Amino acid sequence: MSARTLTGLFAACALVAGCSSAIPGDDASAPDSPSSPAAGPEETMPETTPEPTPEITTEPEPEPNEIVDELTIVSGGDVLIHSSVWEAAAQADGSYDFTFQFAGVEDWIAGADLALCSLEVPIAPEGEAPSNYPLFGAPADLIPSLKAVGFDGCNLATNHTMDRGFPGIARTVDLLEANGMGWHGGARTEEEFNETQFYVIPSEERDVTVAHISASTLTNGLSAPADKPWAWYVVGDLGPYDVTDVIEQARRARADGADLVVVSMHWGTEYVSEPIPEQVELGRQLAESGEIDLVYGNHSHVPEPVEKLPGGPDGDGMWVVWSMGNMLSGQQVSSHGYRVNTGILATATVEVPRSGPAKVATLDWTAITQDSAGGKRLFPLSKLRSGEVVAPTLSAREIEAHAAATYPVMDPSGPERTEPPTSSRTVTPERR
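RESULT FIELD:
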């Protein structure tokens, strides 16, 4: 077969289906390919509905600065236990129960996420009798009473801290510790002085840790023992420490995990309704340090305004109440006027973001009045004025006299808060 004929055959095979690849007449031709089965009747495939394509949704990333919770911190005026106060709390068995005196404001204390007592006086040393002005020493039963009404801890640095000597400080701290409460401003050891009081508050998505520092610019003409200067946190001209020590302690507290730093300052002048220059200067230094979120002031025995100072940890300001006046005391209207029987509960509202620092958003004030002749019981002044609550011995005229002595001082601070906070969280005190 010629090459031309062979080439033609190959071309024909490319055009005809089923053509064998073998060359005709070639003895080495390949065996036939298996034949295909005969075609049967056409099969009908069932129709299928295609599965819908699932819709893909993407959850938005949570905003790290989104506010996920709010907390409240409450403090009040001086707890100044004169003999008339403990005599009203005396029980038939010789013990003392102060809880009834706080019952009218207990919702404000127990309802806060963190409640800090301004304990102006030490507890009398064990085995010694209570004592009155000018060297105070309160009955030991005061501490469990404070715990029972909802206080989580106390600031101890005041002008009366050393009234019963170092044993009085040690007894006070012993009882606070035994009752599961925190403290700052008085110490049993130098190591304890160098510690800061922390409170861990459980929150919706994260715990919030509050550091509490307590210092005084004032003394009662006394000084700490020469070998124990750390027993009493006195800053300024009358003490061994300075406001810069408070700022440095706040800085260390943040390094140790504090989300917020609260400072209780015992400062100013008695019976003065506005901050004196020394308070203003110290407040400025605390605010400008950027280490402190909130200052609770006391000592004047009368209320002083709330203010937001430039500075603070984020540059958005630091809240201060210059003085909350008296909370529970034996001071008399006849000696000092109605102002000394109306103090302030100051409620800080803290915004908690998903991440990043918590922030004191507002500091509200609430006037509370003491019914001196009615067992020293405490009541919100606004509730007395509206008739929502009734004090045993306060007349309408006396209630309005308390209001006239208080509201002109506090009104420039903004509107009064008239409802208590509510909380069911359990705070854990820690020392670091």
